[in-house]
Design goal:
By secondary structure, the protein is mainly β. It is built from six helices and 16 strands. The structure holds heme C.
């Protein structure tokens, strides 16, 4: 009996929306099935989306829909503001599978123009009316060294190798957002060195951090955050992997959207050890500029080439500022685009004594958007 109802409900949807399976797995809403003449985003949403997403944007029960793929809750401020409009237009245009979602989310690209879809998405974005939540457009592609201003839910594993005291260094970073603007962070580095034919190494100092977005505006295209970190002397001291003193770090991060999918990011701050006989006070600043390109039309894989400039200087008179240049490229690995890879080449620009070029790369998993195996 229940399955008969499911089949019937599906049939009603298929006929109501003119859904047909297309080769890319998406169900396509046919051209001419939606009248868009002079309609607002709210009206278009009511006509084309509310059957599954509900007029209030909260989504509908499986029993009403006749399938058990849960529909997202667009009123949830934790979720909706962080998704860039362009990503949602992509999903609505091409159907769920374009971002590794279910094909229950149909493709409207044939029936609705991009301008209609942007109007609808604007309406959907209004379901979370609290402006405290920074918009996902301000979540710029992460550079290898410059810390983002956007508060994130991420795992990042960064590895560097080359000549020099630490042949291979790997750092694990866990970031968790809470509330609209805050994020906590835990960082643990590891180093291994090859000497006399064998590898040795261990863990470095553990970092605990807190970051808060102080100001952000999608209209003006910027976000600014302040952060404080404590680096605890937990590392392997005997192997030279600890600073042997607690270090306080504080910095400002800034992100700016530029025309044609370009962006600029800046981070500047200081590191202040509690015992300055063990480690010196240091100032640092980093900047990244880049642009995002998409492969195979506007909805495909995103490539973001960037160049980073890094500067660090001991806070004592006569100290040299160390400059490094890091050309790099970030690429989305899966169709959901929440798993990304970045590879770059860090090269010292001055004072090359004991400072070597290194390959640096990371794997990034935005775990809020899905599991590691989701959305491929
Ligand atoms: C036939 C039912 C149905 C209709 C009609 C429908 N959707 Fe969906 N939509 C879904 C389902 C189911 C999902 C969840 C897919 C998943 O999680 O795998 C979804 C997901 C989405 C998402 C992805 C959100 C995320 O998780 O990032 C967006 C955006 C979206 N829909 C927008 C729209 C818009 C805009 C319309 C109208 C133009 C629309 N949908 C019409 C069923 C539908």
């Amino acid at each position: 009996m229940r399955s008969t109802w499911c089949v019937l409900a599906t049939l009603v949807f298929v006929t109501a929306f003119g859904l047909v399976q297309d080769p890319s797995q998406a169900q396509v809403v046919q051209k001419g099935t939606v009248n868009t003449e002079g309609k607002t985003g709210a009206q278009l949403f009511a006509d084309s989306c509310a059957a599954c997403h509900g007029r209030d944007g909260k989504g509908k029960e499986a029993s009403v829909l006749g399938f058990d793929v849960p529909t997202p809750d667009f009123t949830d401020c934790q979720f909706a503001p962080r998704e860039p409009n362009a990503d949602w237009v992509t999903v609505a245009h091409e159907g769920g599978p374009v971002r590794g979602f279910s094909n229950r989310m149909p493709s409207f690209g044939g029936a609705l123009g991009e301008a209609d879809l942007y109007r609808i998405i604007d309406h959907i974005k209004g379901f979370c009316s609290d402006p405290a939540w920074p918009r996902g457009e301000l979540n710029l592609p992460k550079a290898l060294h410059t810390e983002k201003a956007f508060p994130e839910d991420e795992w990042v594993m960064t590895t560097g190798f080359g000549k020099g005291p630490a042949n291979v260094s790997t750092e694990f970073v866990y970031e968790k957002r809470f509330g609209p603007r805050n994020q906590i962070e835990v960082k643990l580095p590891f180093q291994s060195t090859r000497a006399n034919g064998h590898w040795s190494g261990g863990a470095g100092d553990l970092t605990l951090g807190f970051k808060r977005a102080m100001a952000h505006s999608l209209e003006k295209g910027f976000i600014v955050s302040l952060a404080g970190e404590v680096i605890l002397p937990t590392g392997d001291s005997a192997a030279g992997l600890s600073k042997d003193t607690t270090v306080f770090e504080s910095f400002v991060s800034f992100g700016k959207l530029l025309p044609s999918d370009s962006f600029f990011q800046f981070q500047g701050g200081v590191e202040l050890p509690t015992d300055t006989t063990k480690a010196g006070n240091e100032a640092f600043w980093r900047a990244a500029i880049g642009r995002t390109f998409t492969q195979n039309g506007p909805f495909g894989r995103a490539w973001s080439p960037m160049v980073e400039v890094l500067a660090a200087r001991d806070l004592e008179s006569g100290a040299t500022t160390h400059w490094d240049l890091v050309p790099q490229v970030q690429v989305t690995l899966n169709t959901r685009q929440h798993i990304r890879f970045n590879i770059g080449w860090r090269t010292p620009l001055n004072d090359r004594r004991g400072r070597h070029s290194r390959v640096v790369m990371y794997f990034l998993w935005d775990w809020f958007d899905g599991g590691l195996r989701d959305g491929w």
